[in-house]
Amino acid sequence: xxxxxxxxxxxxxxxxxxxxxxxxxxxxxxxxxxxxxxxxxxxxxxxxxxxxxxxxxxxxxxxxxxxxxxxxxxxxxxxxxxxxxxxxxxxxxxxxxxxxxxxxxxxxxxxxxxxxxxxxxxxxxxxxxxxxxxxxxxxxxxxxxxxxxxxxxxxxxxxxxxxxxxxxxxxxxxxxxxxxxxxxxxxxxxxxxxxxxxxxxxxxxxxxxxxxxxxxxxxxxxxxxxxxxxxxxxxxxxxxxxxxxxxxxxxxxxxxxxxxxxxxxxxxxxxxxxxxxxxxxxxxxxxxxxxxxxxxxxxxxxxxxxxxxxxxxxxxxxxxxxxxxxxxxxxxxxxxxxxxxxxxxxxxxxxxxxxxxxxxxxxxxxxxxxxxxxxxxxxxxxxxxxxxxxxxxxxxxxxxxxxxxxxxxxxxxxxxxxxxxxxxxxxxxx
Length: 430
Known about the structure:
Layout: E1 4-10, H1 14-18, H2 21-32, H3 53-68, E2 73-77, H4 84-93, E3 105-109, H5 115-125, E4 130-135, H6 142-159, H7 161-164, E5 168-172, H8 178-186, E6 189-192, H9 206-215, H10 219-232, H11 242-253, E7 259-264, H12 270-284, E8 292-297, H13 306-311, E9 316-325, H14 350-368, E10 373-380, H15 383-404, H16 414-428
Parallel strand pairs: 2-3, 2-4, 4-5, 5-6, 7-8, 7-9, 9-10
Antiparallel strand pairs: 1-10
């Protein structure tokens, strides 16, 4: 099996995919040849294969200094694409129960306007040695701007305004913007968000890489996986190009269904699904088009939404992420009295039971309920696989969006609520 394999046999006939072969080849050629009208936003494609060594050294050097200075916590301040990728990776490697500890703990702030959350986060770090990575291309987004002001004030109170700059890194535009000007005035270290990479495509830039380096995640393996995903996308045969097969399958299913439900059988993928949701919703949800994308964790949610998937209105298809080999497992063994009636599982692992739940659910949903299921099989959930999946879905998204006939790189609808909010805030001042 390939490291990532897409099985559409529970969703579509292969002939439904193959009829898009010529159209996909043309889109691929236009993207790689920079012939699309949005070519100025294609910088993310070659990132895994062309990492800036000087920038990588700078990130590693800063992280190394902070570790030597016993910084315990890094406050990553950003919203949307400025934090979703790094949080997805952090939760993936250091899940809730942390089988291994990060070099520097990450907490993610500035992604809501909840006063309660902000107060709690400030309280959490007030007696810790912490640093700040504030991430914003413009520096005008209100959620991270408010959070940065408050964390900066706390840090300056802790170590003094003169030394606070040693614990702040701004990831921002290379030459303009409010955050860029603030960083220059305060003499903060800066990392650059490339001009040709949009926020939701920025996980493999310093936006995502720097926090992960601080945490001690192996970003070389991450980038290696992403580079291999890129290479695999050069094969234009839709039977073999797994990312493009997925893109075409979801596009074909969108003709009949309004919702794509992405499900995983591993809780540590929950926030990866949040990253995926933004990638597809913000890229395709325009011009009255686009699948409504949502996520779920099985088998947990089979005990809540499983009923409506099985017997409810047929408005969705499922995309399932399933891992063949866990990093950790437990072998079940029989007990003498078998009071809990589990001895029939003797010799099986917990992961084997999890895979059985997956197979049973796949049959129930696809064959009994007639809910189409795209299955994305992943060999092993390590850093390499995560990097592969990041690039896999970004490459799939580009094909999917152009098949849909929308610009994957803008988000005009997001600006409307911001404009209304600022009008309300200004009115309240008068």
